[in-house]
Amino acid sequence: MNKKHILFPALLFFSLLTAPIFSSCDKDTNCYLDVLVVEEGTRTPVSNVKIEITQETGDIHDEGETDIKGKYSTHFPAPAILTVNARLLADVENNGYRIGSTTVRTADGETVTAIVTLSSDIFYK
Asked: How far is it, in rounded angstroms, from Cα 121 to Cα 96?
């Protein structure tokens, strides 16, 4: 009768010991990036801005456009240090752009926000 009392707690102990091992497999390892583009003077969001996200080694390249709230969201499979460039056509006749840039580091399972300030100056190519 003593063997039954000892066997049950031992089985319970080992089953609880292995539970964290199997539950850790569901961890989110994607890295999420929200890019917010704002005006230099007013700090208000800017829509329809072209976004280009790159990594120095060239492994990552993503492009998109900000929505009505000045936001562009994306995700990557691994952490990285990324450069975020923003460009808005400001002078159609002369091909002039307002630009902004920032660098950001992403992390596993986290959403990082990169705020890019769009210059009030117009640059010509």
From this structure: 10
